[in-house]
Design goal:
77% helix, 488 residues, mainly alpha, Growth Hormone, Chain: A
């Protein structure tokens, strides 16, 4: 392949930030998100199995997260991003081929249904591991590649504007996919459209179940195209002269060195801890949000419209977050996020039919502001040469906490279901199954706000007593630790 001229290389590198935004949109905007939890339950799984699938997903990321970031620093960020897109294509292909177990038709042969559900769970586990591997490959690598493609003298200010632009366009993408995804999942909506266009056929839930998955497969292909068009800056091309085994060992040494540097750098440690605990409880709601919508009285056809409201909040959060970073102190910003999360969790604990949805913007806004703040503050203090590794640590801590919280949620739902005597859902009628699921879910989420309050108090005393500094003091100057050379 002929070598590119310097001007061609510069133009391709300059296009990286926009392609990064497109990659994030294709990779993250998935049509099944508005019906995520109930989709898995409609496949034939129960809440406990669904929770453990998310644990498997998180564990795959935890195991591969940091090595993938280190390998990105060694073998190239673009390579990891392309691998992530390929894995997403595989992930969607498995979901498209997944069988559906109808619990109602198997009521006369409970053992057969139980075996079918078990095999369904195993196949889903494989799918979740592939999905986790894709997330781990993309995490840190795409962001680091885009950040290092910016002009060095204006990198911080341009990156702040770029993250705002990403939030806006990604929110618009979520509006489209959530409206369409919820609509094509609901058999009533599909049948109305079929009648309107003259199709003489009645579609069931089992037939419309995979419609959002088919559409997301197209998004996976789009992510692959955008990943392939990224270009690695020549100054950051990896040194491939080392044997593969030595390169992997070097990557792990860099990983452990990065972990040590994080523990010795108070500002990065505190940012990681906030990301670990705050993100996990908010993301747990996002995971089971479609179940919550049913609990407070909404049908799947409304999920898309409700999710659109979340995307509109995301657009507002992009502008609001940018102004908060520039004009407000870190203490104010993280205090605001804390209050928003607590409001949202309290609304889950004390549900009001239909009206509880009015409090959900607090959770939507808190998630977007949290990640905008973390991205800006972490990039101020992380050295360029190890940025992918360090950002992978961010993903590692968040997914480790998410996996643990989801695991506890799975054990909690199993305990509550056994206590209520409804552990064998296949023996119940459809109405009884739905009532049992909602009762267990409602009791489980009523304790989330207590967990979060304990976390907030613990982090406050750790920061004040162990570190002895406020947020403003920790982030007073974007300095890098003297021993960062050991990470390189």
């Amino acid at each position: 392949m002929p070598e590119l001229s310097p001007s061609d290389q510069d133009s391709r590198i300059a296009a990286n930030p926009s392609r990064f935004i497109w990659f994030r949109i294709f990779f993250n905007c998935r049509f099944y998100y508005p019906v995520y939890a109930i989709m898995f339950l409609d496949f034939g799984l129960n809440e406990e199995q669904f929770a453990y699938l998310n644990v498997a997903w998180a564990l795959a990321i935890v195991i591969l997260e940091v090595p993938s970031g280190a390998l990105a620093d060694q073998f190239g960020r673009r390579t990891l991003v392309v691998a992530a897109a390929i894995l997403m294509v595989v992930e969607m292909s498995v979901l498209m081929l997944m069988p559906v177990v109808d619990l109602a038709t198997g009521s006369g042969d409970a053992e057969t249904v139980k075996n079918a559900v078990w095999w369904l769970f195993v196949i889903f586990c494989i799918n979740r591991v592939v999905s986790g591997a894709a997330e781990a490959a993309a995490s840190g690598a795409d962001e680091a590649l885009a950040y290092d493609s910016l002009p060095e003298t204006e990198r911080e200010s341009i990156w702040s504007r770029l993250t705002v632009k990403l939030l806006k366009w990604q929110s618009l993408g979520f509006i489209a996919v959530t409206l369409i995804g919820a609509a094509v999942y609901d058999p009533d909506v599909v049948n109305r459209v079929a009648d309107w266009i003259g199709v003489d056929r009645h579609f069931t839930q089992a037939e419309t179940l995979k419609n959002p998955i088919y559409l997301t497969f197209g998004m996976a292909l789009g992510a692959l195209v955008m990943a392939w068009r990224l270009h690695e800056p020549k100054t950051l091309l990896p040194d491939c002269e080392l044997p593969l085994g030595e390169s992997i060992r070097k990557s792990f040494r860099r990983t452990f060195a990065a972990g040590g540097w994080i523990l010795r750098t108070p500002v990065v440690l505190m940012l990681m801890l906030v990301g670990l605990f705050y993100d996990s409880i908010i993301r747990l709601y996002y995971t089971v949000g479609s179940i919550w919508m049913e609990v407070i009285g909404y049908e799947p056809r409304w999920f898309g419209l409700i999710a659109v409201a979340g995307s509109v909040v995301g657009i507002l959060a992009a502008s609001l977050g940018g102004r908060l970073v520039e004009r407000r102190s870190p203490s104010f910003n993280f205090g605001l996020v804390t209050i928003l999360v607590l409001i949202g969790l309290l609304s889950l604990a004390f549900p009001i039919r239909y009206w509880s949805v009015a409090f959900l913007p607090a959770l939507w806004l808190s998630m977007r502001l949290l990640h905008l703040f973390l991205s800006n503050f972490l990039n101020r203090v992380i050295p360029s040469e190890s940025r992918a590794t360090m950002l992978s640590f961010r993903g590692l801590t968040m997914n480790l906490s998410y996996g643990l919280v989801t695991w506890f949620y799975g054990m909690q739902t199993a305990f509550l279901r056994n206590r209520a005597g409804t552990e064998n859902l296949e023996t119940l009628s459809p109405a009884e199954r739905e009532a049992a699921r909602q009762a267990v879910f409602t009791e489980a989420i009523s304790w989330w706000w207590v967990y979060f309050l304990v976390v907030v108090v613990g982090l406050y005393f750790f920061r004040r007593l162990k570190l002895g500094k406020s947020w403003n003091e920790l982030l007073a100057k974007p300095t890098v630790s003297d021993d960062v050379a050991r990470v390189r």
